[in-house]
Predict the structure.
Amino acid sequence: MYRYDEFDHKLVAERARQFRRQVKRRLSGELTEDQFKPLRLMNGLYMQLHAYMLRVNVPYGSLSSRQLRKFAHIARTYDRDFGHFTTRQNIQFNWIKLEEVPDILEELAEVEVTAIQSSGNCVRNITSDHYAGRARDELADPRVYCELLRQYTILNPEFSYLPRKFKIALTGSPRDRAAVALHDIGLRMHRNEAGEIGFEVLVGGGQGRTPFIAHTIREWLAPEHLLSYVESILRVYNMYGRRDNMHKARIKIIVNQMGIDRYRELVEADWEQIRDSVLKVPQAEVDRINAYFAPPEYECLADIPDELNDVRARIPEFDQWMAANVAEHRIPGYSIVNLSLKAPGMPPGDMTADTMDAVADLADRYSLDEIRVNHRQNLSFVDVRQRDLFTLWKELKLHDLATPNIQSVSDIICCPGLDYCNLANSRSIPVAQDLSRHFVDVDHLALVGDFTINISGCMNACGHHHVGNVGILGVNKRGKEFFQLTLGGSSDENAALGDRLGRALPQDEVPAAVETIVDTYLAMRLDGERFLDTYRRVGIEPFKQAVYSPVQTRAVA
Amino acid sequence: MALVKNNAMIDDPFVDVTGQETIPADGPVIVDLHQWQSHREQLTQRTDPVGVRLRSDQPPELIAGDLESLALVALEFPVFRDGRAYSYARLLRGQYRFDGEIRAVGDVLLEQLHFMERTGFDAFELQSDDPLGDLQVASADFDVWYQPAADGRLSAMQLRHQSD
């Protein structure tokens, strides 16, 4: 993992001190709430329905056990004993007192964690593939470039008052686990014709009320130009992005209004002026950062499929967990283990302080002290010896973190909704809880296979409903909560936005409707087809009929 | 309105005549873009310095060819949240190599001063009872910077590899 040097430490300490002053000026009335708002947001502090919420960055999802223990401490000391992992690899604390925030930020700084720019109209936490550096299918490790971008964007004087928030995601693997096409800037590592590794640069993706899949602005960019090219994209956005209407202020709107070709022209013209400036990344800095991401000293082990298969044959529950929650590691004898934060009835992404401590201990013992946070609100241990898998599984079960449901119907993404958020118009968490209690049969989950459900409590789409295989959007009709379903969304390398199924349903009808969709898929799938493949083949009509005109469907069947 | 430049309060030598019907015959003036474009010839022949004030929807590209005739560009913050002028200042200092005064006008507040300094502003019309004090507070906030900007301060990356 990256470790701070003297510069990083100093800057974070200075920022905490600056915010202490800003809080003091707010409390004394020198700053109005209007003037204070962007300052607190840029330090991660939201005003929610009932209290302040503090969002803390987990840069590109990489967390040490020491940092996780600090989160447990923050949850116990300053909050109500729990935290919430978000879709942007961050953690949120929901019941925070303004006066205590400067102390919290200082405590976080001790373990090299910040809340800088986790909110506000600036560049947010840089996110990435949670398997970065470990995935067997990875072309190159994106983390060094994540770190370069993290530093470049922190307190950037030119881009701290952008028209709207700005999100950047990177992947070094052809399998996109970071949803890069749904970001303001997406960076995908690949080889050009000469065989050199660089970035495909995507721009203008996003969800919210006007979702767009990003356009490619540049097919291939040499890594040394990463910062200058990002600067030019940001500069054009800062100058031309709309400021007249906050709902039209994201880069996706201006890119689609002027067209990607015009946007590219402006960016390239600006970039010509700065591409060979001091922004060019020196190899020495790449090497310095990369040293922190050098592979740990792995033991020389072999894959042990036979031994694992023996245990799997004896213990079906372990077998289900292996199939659903364990992924391939690039080093023989090691595996990646996903910890499900989606046990039946749990609010997705929530974790108690005690569980955080327990996970930190397990990471020390089984995964070289490191934990990853992923955008589906689960955690991963990325360096587990295969011979420890069975023991680890038993330990995870004790903490309810071994539900075998990763990437399945009950692995639901869900925003905080009206239980916390003042933007929401519906309570999304109870819908997720209903669904996870409805789909508890793990054999059935395994049978259904890859199937994502994403729930947002309002059209701002924090629960990524546009890109769920099934998306569920809370809407408010005459003071009552209803839920609008979409089908066919996806955030992977073939990203797609979901199609509207039909009229919104009352909350108590949602689980049955989802079950009908699942059953309709199972009845029509050709062997091995994922839900998404079946949906793309047969279209929305059969699902529409099954949900809204069940009698007719039965007649057809 | 207090004007701060080079860490000192100064009396503004310029008269802001933006939006006015007539421009005084002599003395340093700040005009708006419309006045500049309509009276460019007369204005460039004055011996006293001339400045142009740009609104936040008027990028410096509009005066790029005229910068040699200008002693000052004032960039407006209609509200402190409108951050376009940060980019305009950087373009003026970087791409256009403008070395005259870049003045921050409008909703100019303590908590944004540091970013303004870094992007190339060197004069500030500050909304404050204690503008000098504000500037000192803002300047003392940081002495580590992660990115190069228009102020010539070395970034952490540059300092890390200075001896390489």
User: Anything to note?
Assistant: The longest strand of chain B covers residues 72-77. The beta strands of chain B are 2-5, 8-10, 15-16, 29-32, 50-54, 72-77, 101-106, 123-126. Chain B has a mean pLDDT of 95. Chain B is about 30% helix and 20% strand.
